[in-house]
């Protein structure tokens, strides 16, 4: 169920005419981040409102995999190598929009110093592999 006070819910429902959806399917949409950390920075945002990765469990592993695959396919379609890319999620309280979204950032080597801190795999940012491990521990 969409929360229309949530900007990502409005975008995923197609209610924000200023956001160009690069990919859309039944589960999520992909669009450019408005504050890119590198030349290519996209978000895969679920259509169903989940506040964060913490709202998911191991049954959502396939959703995370589909989001990652779609982001990689989008980057490849734009001629961007995924080898120098970063894919992952922020964890609360380090989330600016409380709606589940996976980041795809490329090239990773061209991120600014501040972006490297914000998106450094850590307690506040989990790579997709770390997210899958986290979900595998949850019922």
Automatic annotation (TrEMBL):
Keywords: Hydrolase, Nucleotide-binding. Residues 7-119 form the HIT domain. It comes from the Eukaryota. A motif (Histidine triad motif) lies at residues 99-103. It catalyses: adenosine 5'-phosphoramidate + H2O = NH4(+) + AMP. It holds the Pfam family DcpS_C. PROSITE patterns: HIT_2. InterPro entries: HIT-like, HIT-like_sf. GO terms for molecular function: hydrolase activity; nucleotide binding. Belongs to the HINT family. PANTHER family: ADENOSINE 5'-MONOPHOSPHORAMIDASE HINT3, APRATAXIN-RELATED. This is Adenosine 5'-monophosphoramidase HINT3. It comes from Drosophila mauritiana. The gene is LOC117147240.
